[in-house]
Amino acid sequence: MKRILEKPVRLRDRFVVRVFSFFALSLLVISGIFTGVFVYRQTHVHKALLLENGRRLASILARGSRSAVFAENQAMLEDVVQGVLGENPVSAVVVLDVKKRTLLIKGKTERNLSHARELLPKALEKIACLGPDRDLEIVEDVDCVQVWRPVMLRASRRGTEDLFFTPTDTKQPEEVIGFAGV
């Protein structure tokens, strides 16, 4: 008696439901895969752009702070640091002397400043190898990327002789006088 009251299940209804479920599930899986690939690609493009801007800004900071680092004058560093700190991806700027003592450290916010101070010991280990032959070091953290460049000073081997005579060798040795980090 129960069988008579039940509505008969048609094969066509089952087949349509299965095909629809298969296509819907396939669409969801393909959409998820493409979303994952897009997010992965955009993350890498954004990181590469961030590193390129960091290299550029660290170079500007290292060149602009050359005389201030040589004189160890914090007031002279303020203008260069403010200019670099005003750029969009920069959250903190650190300038060190050759003995790795902090000449100036500034952040956009207090949180950025404290985070830069936390990462400084890790950066000090890595920047030990910077010099004329290696002029870039990247220190990565979970939510931060620091780019470090040495502050270089060109030194003449002959003293004041270059003031009076035309130098015969155009390549002058460079000496590290400090470090600049963005």
Describe the structure.
With 182 residues, this protein is an alpha+beta fold. The protein is 53% helix and 19% strand. The protein is built from six helices and five strands; from the N terminus they run ααααββαββαβ. The chain has a five-stranded antiparallel β-sheet with strand order 2-1-5-4-3, with helices on both faces. β3 (137-140) and β4 form a beta hairpin. α2 runs antiparallel to α4. The longest helix has 54 residues, at 11-64. It is elongated and about 105 Å long. The termini are far apart.
What topology emerges from the helices and strands here?
Elements: H1 2-5, H2 11-64, H3 66-71, H4 74-85, E1 92-97, E2 102-107, H5 110-126, E3 137-140, E4 145-154, H6 161-164, E5 174-181
Antiparallel strand pairs: 1-2, 1-5, 3-4, 4-5
First-to-last CA distance = 82 Å
H/E element string? HHHHEEHEEHE
Helical fraction equals: 40-55%
Number of helices: 6
Report the strand count.
Answer: 5
Specify the structural class.
alpha+beta
Largest sheet: 5 strands, antiparallel
The gross shape turns out to be elongated
Strand proportion: 15-25%
Query: What oligomerization state is this entry in?
Result: single chain
Task: State mean pLDDT (0 to 100 scale).
Answer: 82
- As laid out across the biggest beta sheet, the strand order is 2-1-5-4-3
